[in-house]
Amino acid sequence: MPDNITIFSKQIALYGVFINIGTVAGLIVFLILAYKKSKSIERVFGATVLAFALLKWGFFASNIVRGLNYNSFGNIAEMFTVNAGGHFIGRVLLVMAAFPVLYILLFQKFKYEWKDYLDIFCFYLVIQHIFNRIACIFNGCCQGKSVSFLNNGLPARGFEVLSMIILLIVCIKLYIAKKHIFGIFGMWFAMTIFISEFMMKNLDVVYFIGIDAVQYAAIILFIISFVNQKGMHRNS
C-alpha cells in the first residue's frame, strides 16, 4: 500500500493527508452543529477555542500515556512542551475531563450549555479517529500482532475504524433523538481502545497486572463517561 502521493512533482505523505482530512471534516461538522444549536457566533467561537485548545495542548496527556506505556519519559519538561506523537486517548481523556469544568468557569452565563457543546465535539473526535487509523494503515504503523492464521496479523487498525464508524452512526441517532452523546461516546471509545490494545503489536510496552498504560487510560475514560452518563439520567 502506497504511503505517499505525488502532486505537481511533490511527494506528500498520505499519513498527514488523512489526519488533515479528519481534522477539516470534523471541524466543519462541529461548527455547523454548534451554530445550529446556539445561533451565536460568539458562543460557538468560545466553545470551539476551548475544545480545540484542550485537544491541541492535550499532547502532554498523550505524552504521559506514551511515557508510561514504554517507561520512557526522557526530559520531563519536554513532556509538556513537545508533541512526541502520543496516543490519541490521552487527548480525548483530557477533553472529556476538563471541558465541563473549564466551560462552567469561563462561561458562567451559559454554563449549562457545556453538555450540548461536548456532545457536538464528540462528532469531531470520532471523525478524527476514523481518519487517524486510516492514516496509520497507509503509514504502516500501529500494526496488529502476528498470528499463524492471518497473513497480515490481527486487524487492530481496521477494528478501530469499523468501531468508530458504528459509533458515528450511534452518535447521529442519539443527536436526532435529542439525547446526550458524550457519555456513550466516552464508554464506547474507551472499550474500543481497551480491546484494540490486546490486538496491537506492542513492542517494549510495560504491562502492569496484564494491561498497559493505554488500557488504564481507557478504564479512566470509561469511568468518567459512565459517571457522566448516570448523571444525565438523574437530571433527565
Output the keywords:
236 residues; mainly alpha; two-stranded antiparallel ribbon; 3% strand
How does this structure look, described?
This protein is mostly helical and 236 residues long. The protein has one domain (4-38, 97-235). It has 9 helices and 2 strands; from the N terminus they run ββααααααααα. It has a two-stranded antiparallel ribbon with strand order 1-2.
Q: What's the structural blueprint in terms of helices and strands?
A:
Layout: E1 4-7, E2 10-13, H1 14-38, H2 41-57, H3 59-70, H4 76-79, H5 88-106, H6 114-139, H7 156-176, H8 182-199, H9 213-235
Antiparallel strand pairs: 1-2
Helix pairs in contact: 1-2, 1-6, 2-5, 3-5, 5-6, 5-8, 5-9, 6-7, 7-8, 8-9
Outline of the structure:
It is built from 9 helices and 2 strands. With 236 residues, it is mainly α.
The best one-word shape is globular
Order of helices and strands: EEHHHHHHHHH
Distance between the termini: 49 Å
Per DSSP E runs of 2 or more residues, the count of β-strands stands at 2
What is the total domain count? 1
Helix and strand content put the structural class at: mainly alpha
